[in-house]
Design goal:
The protein is about 70% helix and about 5% strand. By secondary structure, it is of the alpha/beta class. The protein folds into two domains: about 5-465, Up-down Bundle (Amino acid/polyamine transporter I), CATH 1.20.1740; about 500-649, 3-Layer(aba) Sandwich (Rossmann fold). The two termini are about 40 Å apart.
């Protein structure tokens, strides 16, 4: 075993067997672990969302009571809406699949592009914000190293996630639970310690409401409330993460997903609304270099030594939770990318799993782009938050619009409670689309325009990739039809002699490509080869690993394809045999099969076809893997011959 292989296994662990009976249970998540891994994104927003809303009210702080109530209600309304997503799409995919299947593929592309940008920004803004909290305790001389620390953090999270989703959650779980315990305790203590002021909040709010309406009127009053509410909209980000990753949950997935969503809704609404109530009761003032949370918690805990220690622990846990939220971008983002790859919007390689059964290519892409974003903006949270605040509500609005249309059009076939579900979906859609419009208008000039440009760029790239794949698949389908050879049953098997010259043909997803290879071997080497061996690999990717039935279907399709070629050779009196393998890496599994065949057939030559494009460039090489050339190098190292036959598209 080489040093590189040993280092890789030390960092990310040994390979997992996707066909092991207990592997799904090993890597799937119970509700508690899903809450930790997927709920951190939303819960961490309580570190900055309530503060933005409270400060936006200016001197009219008592109006924050409306924001607190609206925040708690909004969290539950959106959560109930996404419970419907979990029911209708138990295989995962969340907002992307909802928009694709209920509103059309191009609307789904908009939702998917927004989610991709959103999860990259989740990683970047959470890492930057968490490091801001950490470096606020350190001497100013350390400040120049903050950006380097943020990059190092993202790299560390990337390595942890390459080990597997469950492993990354278990490592970060103590931070999440510590945040929950200490913040729940502070909120309860802060409210009870100021219980006399609690009875005055409602009357003071009503009095200030009347006074403000008399001075400025209803419209400016509502505009102020909506503006503050929209600025705190970051509080609701992350709610969709559960629906995106339902396929990763423990069976029964729908039940586990609903419990996870309930845990998330309770914890998020209690924390966010509770912190706003603390602001109202304790009246903190903004202090330069400190968050409003730090100021109010300092007021609650006091200046005693124990209070200072608890304050440091609290703020360190807030930073830790922001790191967990950055990790949630790694958990949910690559899944969206993989679902889009299945539909042909992004390169196919993003649907492939690694030996650890994680979407390795997607993880690396999200990590790299998050680092580039941090370097571009110098780690400034203010810039990242502006970019971050819009895309998630695009997905929210599209998903809930799709659900509303679904319950209207499918009401006769749907649940008897369709009317209630429709009302929830419409209400949630009105809330999220309203927040989206207000946020886009108020923040467009301060950075929202850049989010629109980035998202539109992703959409254009996806359209170009889809167009390319459509043309190629159309050509390959035509070739499959043209080269499809009839087989006359019954067929008598032909005995095989391993000592005779043998041609080993690799069979891929398209039978026409393999038939093109076989016919060219006959044409180039007439009557030379006496045996024909067919090798094929079933790739365990995101689509096939979505459930046992999909794995069985994949195995059935591979065996059926191989049997077709064996029968085709037998009907012409030629000896033939087939071998199938299954795994996450095409080249690795084909190399193993080639070694196995080479031991039995000492006089064999391997053949494969390579698609040749009229305008071949790095883009086509990115969109289509270079399996034949990579495999050729592997077989040459084994002392075997692989002939690559060109197939022009």
């Amino acid at each position: 075993m080489s040093i590189i292989v040993r280092l890789k296994q030390f960092l990310i662990g040994g390979p997992l067997n996707p066909f092991h009976p207990g592997i799904t249970r090993h890597i799937s998540l119970i509700a508690l672990l899903a809450w930790v891994g997927l709920g951190a994104d939303g819960l961490s927003s309580s570190c900055y969302g309530p503060e933005e809303a409270y400060l936006a009210l200016g001197g009219h702080t008592h109006l924050a009571l409306y924001i607190a109530i609206a925040t708690a209600i909004t969290v539950f309304v959106i959560s109930l809406g996404y419970n419907q997503v979990i029911e209708l799409f138990p295989s995962g995919g969340g907002g992307y699949k909802v928009a694709t299947q209920l509103l059309g593929s191009h609307v789904g592309l908009l939702s998917g592009a927004a989610l991709i940008v959103d999860y990259v920004l989740t990683i970047a803004v959470s890492a930057a914000s968490g490091m801001d909290a950490i470096f606020s305790f350190l001497p100013m001389t350390f400040l120049p190293y903050k950006l380097l620390a943020e990059v190092a953090l993202i790299f560390l999270l990337l390595v942890i996630n390459l080990r597997g989703m469950r492993e990354s959650i278990l490592i970060l779980m103590p931070i999440f639970l510590g945040f929950i315990i200490i913040h729940f305790g502070l909120i309860v203590y802060g409210i009870t310690a100021h219980h006399k002021g609690l009875t005055l909040i409602a009357p003071d709010t009503i009095q200030e409401t009347k006074s403000l309406i008399q001075i400025v009127g209803w419209l400016p009053f509502l505009a102020l409330i909506l503006h503050a509410y929209s600025l705190g909209a970051g509080t609701y980000t992350g709610i969709e993460a559960v629906s995106n990753n339902v396929h990763r949950l423990r069976e029964p997935r729908v039940v586990t997903g609903k419990w996870t969503m309930l845990y998330m809704a309770i914890s998020l609404s209690f924390t966010a609304a509770g912190i706003i109530l603390l602001y109202l009761l304790w009246g903190p003032m903004k202090v330069p270099g400190k968050t409003l949370n730090a100021v109010v918690f300092h007021a609650i805990l006091g200046d005693a030594s124990l209070g200072q220690i608890l304050l440091y622990i609290t703020l360190i846990l807030e930073a830790g939770l922001l790191f967990v939220a950055a990790n949630s971008g790694f958990l949910a983002g690559p899944t969206v990318l993989a679902n889009m790859a299945i539909d042909g919007w992004v390169p196919n390689r993003f649907r492939h799993l690694s030996t650890r059964l994680v979407i390795q290519n997607g993880l690396i892409l999200f990590g790299v782009f998050a680092i580039l974003l941090l370097l571009w903006c110098g780690g400034q949270v203010a810039i990242l938050v502006v970019l971050y605040s819009i895309n998630v509500f695009i997905t929210f609005s599209l998903s809930l619009l799709g659900l509303s249309i679904y319950w209207i059009t499918k009401r006769k076939k749907a649940s008897p409670r369709w009317l209630w579900r429709l009302c929830f979906s419409v209400l949630a859609f009105i809330i999220t689309s309203g927040v989206l419009c207000i946020t886009l208008i108020t923040k467009f000039q301060s950075g929202g325009w850049l989010t629109v440009i980035v998202t539109c760029t992703v959409i254009v790239l996806c359209l170009l990739i889809k167009r390319h794949y459509y043309r190629v698949n159309k050509k390959l389908t035509e070739i499959d039809i043209q080269l499809k050879q009839p087989i006359a049953y019954p067929i008598l098997p032909v005995p095989i002699d391993p000592q005779q010259p043998s041609a080993v043909v690799f069979v891929g997803k398209n039978q026409g490509v393999a038939m093109h290879t076989l016919l060219n071997v006959w044409r180039m080497f007439p009557r030379h080869f006496k045996n024909f061996i067919f090798l094929s690999i079933g790739i365990v990717d995101v689509e096939s690993f979505s459930g046992p039935s999909q794995l069985e279907k994949m195995q059935h399709d591979v065996n059926k394809s191989l049997q077709y070629f064996v029968d085709y050779c037998h009907q012409y009196g030629m000896a033939a045999e087939a071998y199938a393998g299954y795994g996450t890496d095409t080249v690795e599994e084909l190399s193993k099969l080639a070694e196995q065949v080479g031991k039995k057939y000492s006089n064999c030559v391997f053949f494969s076809s390579k698609l040749i494009f009229e305008h071949d460039n790095w883009i086509t090489r990115l969109l289509h893997n270079e399996t034949p050339f990579t495999l050729q190098r592997q077989l040459h190292l084994q002392g075997k011959e692989l002939v690559i036959l060109p197939m022009r598209i």
